[in-house]
Amino acid sequence: MKKLIGVLMMLVVYTTTVIGQTNETINILFLGNSYTYYNGVPSIVSDMGLQKGKKIVVTQITRGGSLLDTYANTDFILETINKYKFNYVVLQEQSTSPLFAAEEKTYPAIRKLDKEIRKNGGQTVLYMTWAREYADSIGTKMLPGKFYYDVFDSFDTAQDSLAASYNKIGKEINAKVAPAGLAWKAFHKMHPDVSLWRSDHSHPLEIGSVIAAYSIYKTIFNEPVSGIKSPLPISKEYEKDIVEITDKLVPCNK
């Protein structure tokens, strides 16, 4: 069992409060990597809660390129889950592992973390990420022995495979899946000329992180996101489309 993660990870705590809020404090832990910390997805979610009058404390433990397998076998992570009794823990896996190492790495790690989360009264939320931007094979898209799009013939194909992987383990452990990747797919179809990825064809621009945050917020709180404004600067048209996509992909359960 690892006592410390070899490279320093980011641990940040955000608290949002508003006059007239309910007394209940909602504690959320995000475990992930750069797909979580780029553009501050946890802080976007906490700001959305602020707009709805919620008191949210968001804790973020992230390190670039980290796998959930590393977190599941690190004492500090397990001790944090046991000590702070989070209401929700959002798990975000490394971007290619659910496609190429699901059975060997991703699923065992999620099962182990979910067991600890439930033992402490929390709920697991799986943060479904997005596929790489479709482009000619380039170095940044390299997998062991081949390029990313030597395996998949399109972004849609890759995204559907990612969704299937997350939904499979979500169904097994009876956990909510925040379909951020499918929201990316829907937005990309509506606005094919709007870039969601940075120049590395992987990490999100601000609008991509906003799409993800809306999906995560609605998955956790089971309430419409209409009326919630993006904390990051995006056009009113895009914000409206993201809200509509989110409400369609993540129906409220009665």
TrEMBL record:
InterPro entries: SGNH_hydro_sf. One of its GO terms (molecular function) is hydrolase activity, acting on ester bonds. SUPFAM superfamilies: SGNH hydrolase. This is SGNH/GDSL hydrolase family protein. The lineage of its organism: Bacteria, Pseudomonadati, Bacteroidota, Bacteroidia, Marinilabiliales.
